Amino acid sequence: MPFGDILGQTTAKRILQNSLRKGTLGHAYLFSGPAGSGQMKTAVTLAQAIFCTALEDDACGECLECRKVEHGNHPDLKILSPEGNSIKIDQIRDLQRVFSYRAEGGHPKVYIIDEAGKMTVQAANSLLKFLEEPPVPAVAILIADNNQSLLPTIQSRTQRIPFAPLSPEMMMQVLSNEGVSAPLARCAASLTSGLEGCRELLEQNWFAEIRNLVLQLAKESLGKNGSAVATAGQKLFKTGLGEHLDTCFSMFHLWFKDMLYFLYRKHESIVFIDQLDLISNYARMRTSSQWVAYMDYAAESKKKLRFNVNAQLCLEQFLIRLES
């Protein structure tokens, strides 16, 4: 995959391609930024570009070296990811053993460590010396959504390449091209920072159900007929959807923000755009400060969940506050 096929990340691609062109590649990189913003694709493309026999600063995708990477069988590329919940010292030792042999071509070897923040302390310490003094020419690429999850000594030995969240518009366009319905794509893109995260959400059967339920609960709670709490009990907790309450509160947050967008005439930013008629009816029922307060309620409720407050009680209290 050439760099041009990677969505966004202009800064990251420019830095890496300039280094390839000038022959100034670093020995170790840290790709840091939100999960799903293209770090792994960029890492694999960088490896391809290093091995590529046709292009100087990109991957042609057609030469033998590029095709080996595409097929996952290039002998000079090693990708590590957590085994279970962590990357263990044995995985780093195995990497060191593989890298005791020279590369097959005239290029350095490349290793990619995905979710590098999940290295055990022993694994991280084992990697340290290897990062600085690999037995053969090598380029290390560490991927972490939060660079602070890595030991400071590892951070100091790598060149940080920043990755930014993909814009919702960019993700929605790709998802639309893949045949995802616009309302669901818009919602997923507003709740995640990368395409992979979007796709994971959209693959869940409960995602569309939660969206429909949030709309129903929002109507009932704002209608002040007292039925929202009963609906929540019946539909959320008797169907297993209660496990996804965190996403439920995030969607409520988006719904209330949409009311503000409508009041401020920012229709292009509205997430639940397929509900525009409904939003136009409800938006003026509250002041902008009340909608902001409702957004705060949703954020507070998410926080309560993290502190293990009873989920059903948490949602019922939230809905009662909306009805009051």
State the low-pLDDT regions, or none.
none
Domains, number:
2
Gap between N and C termini:
55 Å
Number of helices: 15
Rounded average pLDDT: 88
Largest sheet, in brief, is: 5 strands, parallel
Q: Radius of gyration over alpha carbons?
A: 24 Å
Strand content: 5-15%
Q: Could you state the order of secondary-structure elements as H and E?
A: HEHHEHEHEHEHHHHHHHHH
- Give the total of beta strands: 5
| CATH H-tier superfamily of the largest domain | P-loop containing nucleotide triphosphate hydrolases
Give your account of this protein's structure.
- This is DNA polymerase III subunit delta.
- Its EC number is 2.7.7.7.
- Keywords: Nucleotidyltransferase, Transferase.
- InterPro entries: DNA_pol_HolB, DNA_Rep/Repair_Clamp_Loader, P-loop_NTPase.
- GO terms for molecular function: 3'-5' exonuclease activity; DNA-directed DNA polymerase activity.
- The chain is α/β, with parallel strands linked by helices and 324 residues long.
- The protein folds into 2 domains: 3-162, Rossmann fold (3-Layer(aba) Sandwich), CATH 3.40.50; 204-323, Zinc Finger, Delta Prime, domain 3 (Up-down Bundle), CATH 1.20.272.10.
- The chain is 53% helix and 8% strand.
- It has 15 helices and 5 strands.
- The chain has a 5-stranded parallel sheet, with helices on one face.
- Helix 11 packs antiparallel against helix 15.
- The longest helix is centred in the C-terminal third of the chain and has 19 residues, at 245-263.
- It is elongated and about 75 Å long.
- The termini are far apart.
- 37% of the residues are buried.
